[in-house]
Amino acid sequence: MTTLILASASPARQKILRSAGISPQIMVSDVDEDAILAALPYPPQQQPADAVLALARAKAESVATTLGSARAVAPAGKRVLVIGCDSMLEFNGEILGKPHTPDVARARWHAMRGNHGVLHTGHWVVELDPHGEPGPPQQGHTSVPMEGHGESGTTTVHFSTITDEDIDAYVATGEPLHVAGAFTIDGIGGAFVERIEGDHNLVVGLSLPMMRRIVDRFNISWPSLWSV
User: Fold this and answer.
1) Catalytic: which of 30, 34, 50, 86?
2) Looking at residue 137, what is its pLDDT?
3) How do residues 92-130 score in pLDDT, each as one tens digit?
C-alpha cells in the first residue's frame, strides 16, 4: 500500500479521500500564499489555472522538504506521495480567495448572487525519496530535486438569487469566511448554489479523477492507495 500525505487542513478534502477508501496522513504546509502569488511572472487573474497550480506545488513541496524522505513516515521501501491543493474563484475578471472578514464575504455574495463564476482548483503531487535522510536538508547541503506532477481543472458555479437576509444569515455562520470564493457546495452554503458545470468534487476541493491521473504518472496504481 502507498502512503498519501495531504498537505491541507481541509476537512472536506479529507472526507473525499476517506470516502474513496484512502486514509491520508495530514501535515499542513506553512507557505506564504501572498508571497508566492506576488513572485509569479504573471498576474494571477490573467492565468488563474496556473496560479492555483503554483500554490498547490508550493504546499506539497514545503511538506515534502520538511519530511525529507519516505522513511520519516513509512517503513523502508514504502512509497509515499504528498499532495498539495489550492482553489480560487474567478469572478468578473477578479480572483477571489478566502474573504476572512464578514464585510468582504457579504460584499462578495451581494455581487455573486444570480451570477456565475469559475472555480479553479490545482493539485500537485510529489514523491518522497525512499532512501534519503528524514528531516529538512542540513546546513551546507542542498535538497534532492523532487519528482512532481500536477494538474488544474475548472468548474463553472451558478449562484442562486438569494435575499439580503439570506446573505446576512449565511455570513453569520462563519462558514464563508474561510473558504475560497466565500461559499461551499457540501456545507451550509450548498443551498445557495443553483447548479454547476463540471466536477462536483473539484468544487469541494479535490478531484478524484484528476488525482488518479496524476498518481498514474508515478507508475503507482490507484488501488494501492486504498486502506480497505
Assistant:
1) 86
2) 62
3) 989 988 899 999 999 999 999 999 999 999 999 999 988
Q: Which three cell numbers, joined as nine digits, stand for 179? A: 473558504
Distance of alpha carbon 98 from its chain centroid, rounded?
13
Q: Which residues pair with 81 in a beta bridge?
A: 4, 127
Q: Is 30 an annotated catalytic residue?
A: no
- Tally Cβ neighbours within 10 Å of residue 222: 16
88 vs 92: CA distance, rounded Å:
13
Exposure b/e, 78-88, CB count within 10 A at least 16 = b: ebbbbbbbbbb
C-alpha to C-alpha distances, 67 to 32, 50, 96, 137, 211, nearest whole angstrom: 18, 26, 31, 10, 21
In total, the chain counts a number of residues equal to 228
Type of residue found at 143? S
Q: What is the set of domains in the chain, with CATH numbers?
A: 3-223 (3.90.950.10)
Please tell me the distance from the alpha carbon of residue 101 to that of residue 103, in angstroms, as a whole number: 6
Spatial distance between the Cα atoms of 53 and 135, rounded to a whole number of angstroms:
25
Nearest to 65 by CA among 75, 76, 54, 57: 57
